[in-house]
Amino acid sequence: MLLTVSRLSTTFDSAAGRVRAVDDVSFTVGAGRAVGVVGESGSGKTVLSRSIMNLLPRRGVERSGEVRFDGRDLTTLSTKEMTSVWGRRMSMVFQDPMTSLNPVVRVGRQITESLVHHLGMSKTDARDEAIRLLEAVRIPEPERRFREYPHQLSGGMRQRVTIAIAIACSPDLLFADEPTTALDVTVQAQILDVLSDLRTDREMALVLVTHDLGVVAGRTDEIAVMYAGEIVEMAPTAVLFAEMRMPYSEALLRSVPRLDDQPHRRRATIPGRPPNLAAPTPGCRFAPRCAYVAERCLSERPRLEESGIPGHRFACFFPVGSTDGQSNLARNVKAEWAPALEIITHRRETRRSEPAGTPVQVSAAHDRDPVASPSTDSRKASA
Amino acid sequence: MGWWIAVGWLTVVALLALLAPVLPFVKDPSSLDPDALRQGPTLAHWFGGDDGGRDVFARVVWGARVSLFIGVASVSVGLAIGGFVGLTAGYFRGRYERVVMSAMDVMLAFPSLILALALVTFLSTPGEQGGSMFTVTAAVSIIAVPSLARITRAATLTFARREFVTAARALGAKHRRIIVREVLPNVVPPMASFALLAIAVVIVAEGALSYLGLSVQAPQPTWGNLIAQGRPQLDIAPHIALFPCAVMFITLLSLNFVGDKLRARFDVREVRL
Is ipTM > 0.90 here? Predict the structure, then answer.
């Protein structure tokens, strides 16, 4: 295994108290493989990638666990020793190309910098290599772009440049931290294709961090779903989409809009907000927002365990598709809908007792009313 | 337009000061001409003559040599020391920053003229009247350091936390290289525009020192001692003090003007990138 992360935890001291942003995370990345890390904002995915790369601020951060990269435990390396790993062995593409490029340095020099410094290339060799790199990330007119400043490039171009910089020294492992979030939808696919192609061409492992399951669906071998700092489900990509067990993964997938959706269909959302990591609860962290929740989920923490399928792990007592889960869901839906159902039954009864000859349009309006309000939450409607 | 006038004035003053020994129309500042005694401006003596019949224009030009040299030299020294302190403090933070910046604050809290007086006295060799070019430059440099350090640190703080610095780290750049190649180019514009303002402040400081007789000694002319020399004769020959005053005033105004313009121009907000 190229990268083995075991029991990695990262805590921050914040004004609200100690925040456990990464909580007991373990996973592996094989050489040349692509792993997606998916979760909503604040789920700890960015902190996870920075914890692995040792790029956290020095103060107020505590990290425990082991990050074994190519036989060495990165958590024990000093900053000085890390300098030989950064860039040459592992590298990173950041979310916002507006801020991750130096505004006052020409694009070309930002690429040649590490070529000259790490690989000891001569200035002219580095220049040729940089232009080849710009071509590899499909930048038209690389010679011209080489001499330009970041503000002269579009957002997509800039992100291509940051990718070129990150892969300049042919790292074995590339982290891409939401590489497309700051970009136009049309450009997103191009950037992701560039990343995928580079991975295959250069036999480089890729960890793609994103909040969008759609982004990782076709471009990764494995997916880890993160929630509140933990991995709640991890599986080979095909298995995850076919056998999704964790209610959070299911809810995430539901929130991806589909082309075959009806027009004006309300987007499925996950109700509530991610939990406060400074004040953890004893139970499952997703329980307050989960449609499958039962008593046990609030008091006990489910552990990440193997499902029957190799490589598939999830943390849930009442997984999607299980009989227990389904009965919980039915019960919860019933409980939540009870007030609405009451209104419906009440109206039916009053209508029955009303004398014949009530205007038709009035009763039709009555009928539509109670049905319309609960169905606004299509998560339950479709569940 | 105004900017070009300011730049033009500064260029002219700088060129005159630089080329004073070779320019034919700049007379010898110490040669006495009895005809020009306290005489107002004429074609022969553009700014008139002083109480010894010396050419005031030549003396102002030679005085500019001293004032401008001390201004530029001490700000350069201040930039080197203050810039280094500010860059490292803003980049490394922590205890180092607290110690170093507290020291700077202590220096800033000192009344600068008194500090300058003390430094000149302390730095000059015993028995020496006033200061030499070297002691004055050294004293004024030390006074310029803290404010330049603060400005540099403030600019560094905004850039050292930017993502491109993290990105450079993720590519294996060492601290020194990040400071020199990533942070410094971003910090130079605000530093440069502040440096121009600092030169103006330093020229005033040197003027004050030499007015008090603590800077370079007469007969070598400086703007400060020219004004001091003209002061007792303001009622009979006002031009002796007025011309050096006016030249100094316009020079300081131009420096401030250019510095302000540069600052506005380099004040790059991320939005505009």
Answer: no
